[in-house]
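Entry 14: structure prediction run for Phosphate regulon sensor protein PhoR. Input pasted below.
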Amino acid sequence: MVVDYWSVERYRFGLVIGCGALVAWFTPYPLVIMLLVLLGYIGWMLQKLYQLQRWLTNGQKPEEMPDSDGAWEQIAYLFHKSQQKSAERKRKQQELLTRFDNVLSALPDAAVLLDADNHIQWANKSAAKLLGVQDAADRGKRIDTLLRNPDLHKLLEENSERKVTFPSPRNSNLTLRARLLPLQGGSRVLSVRDISEGVQLQKTRKAFIANASHELRTPLTVLTGYIELFEQDPELPEYLKAPLQQSQEQAARMQQIISDMLALSRLESQETTPLMGNRVDVPAMLESSIKAISDTLASDTHLLETQIEPDLCVCGSEKDINSVITNLLANAVKHTPVGTTIRIHWESTDDGQACLSIIDNGPGIPEKHLPHLTERFYRVDEGRSRASGGTGLGLAIVKHVMQWHNGKLTIDSKPGHTEFKACFPAKRVLD
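Run finished. Output tokens:
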């Protein structure tokens, strides 16, 4: 049942006024009596207000709640109910925070909460293990004074989400990868993962590929030599000529795969960016490669159009840049149908870069394949790629050469227009 608390107050006030008026009627000083009655009522109200104020300031303990009725009872009850809800909400929030803290503390990845000025606000247990950052001892300190790594400092200054790799300050045998995750209010979480196992596996894989390629090269050379001797034998039976021809083609393809694997292994093992290197006459290199491919792969099948800045040269590795040119040109010819027009552009951009663009008007590459084209042995069309003699390593080599020269390979494709664009940074461009 809903209680009308204000009706109680009105009843009480009316009773006080009525009783005061009755008493005043029988006395010679009615106004004085009424004034005293009203002052008494106001005093009683102030006493209730004082009790409520004391109860609120003393923590709103249920056993000390003022004993009253009417509006004062409702006010005290509402304050008490609000306190209970607030306490329950705080308890649930604390439970959620405790649970969240336990989850983050159990994660193998280090997590450090930073404010906008890189002061440590919180850190989990893995941060102590991987970074040496203690939650209690280091809270409030700047993280860049505890972790003295230039790459990490640059990441904190840039405030970007890119990843950086650096050795653990606690154990130089551990390799860590860090990234910043932005939060509201300018705060950020520095997330650090131990990638030592992956790095070791990568090194093992690279060593295996390099060693296997070297070991396969010698026996394959011997087999190729014997196949050539058999082919030159005038007494070779007719029925063996086709099998030997196929064997020769497959041996040549295998030699190309091994050569590409060795080139890729060499590029991957170069952990640092090379010096500026020698002056590479890219226009002359392009002219030579275009003539060679016009006389062989593209002979009577493709139309090649060129737009080359004659004096635009770059600094770098001549052998590696030549592999970029030959791989991109060969891919454009091998993976487009007869009659395709291929445009080769070598020109400078407005921001000073030097870009090689190989553009064809072929059928295009489905969008789902574009992110994977630079992966090793990835093929859009398995059968057609093998038939064309491709190794599946050309674009992987191109990507690594461009990265090693601080450049970038971009691929854009839609039906009727496919463009492979390799750009060298302005600092490598020579006038």
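Notes: The longest strand covers residues 175-182. Will compare against the previous run tomorrow.
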